[in-house]
Amino acid sequence: MSNPTKTYLCIVCGFVYDEATGRPEDGIVAGTRWADVPDSWACPDCGVAKADFEIVEI
After folding, report:
1. What is the pTM of this model?
2. How much is the mean pLDDT over the chain?
3. Pairing between strand 53-56 and 7-10?
4. 26 touches 41 (CB < 8 A)
5. N or C: which end of the chain has fewer CB within 10 A?
6. Where residue 29 sits, what CATH number does that domain have?
7. Is 9 annotated as a binding residue?
């Protein structure tokens, strides 16, 4: 049984990172787990660090 993907929300601007779709325009392929997103990655909308995201259920 596989683990479901999760979704993370930027607490500053509301941008959503979905593990199922990744962020191909930033080189993060679909299915990339949040833990595997580089720590240097920043929110594409407001530029805050990965640490400023929270897990959400949509």
Report:
1. 0.88
2. 94
3. antiparallel
4. yes
5. N
6. 2.20.28.10
7. no
- Domain region containing 6: 1-38
Q: Extract the runs of DSSP E, i.e. beta strands, from 1-58.
A: 7-10, 16-18, 53-56
Q: What is the pLDDT at residue 2? A: 64
Quick check: is 22 in a domain?
yes
User: 3-state secondary structure string, 28-42?
Assistant: ECCCCCHHHCCCCCE
Say how many domains are in the chain.
1
Instruction: Give per-residue pLDDT as tens, 19-43.
Output: 999 999 999 999 999 999 999 999 9
Residues with Cβ within 8 Å of 2's Cβ and at least 6 positions away in sequence, in order, are none
Note whether residue 51 is domain-resident: no
46 assigned binding-site residue: yes
Comparing C-alpha atoms, which of 20, 16, 23 is closest to residue 46? Answer: 16
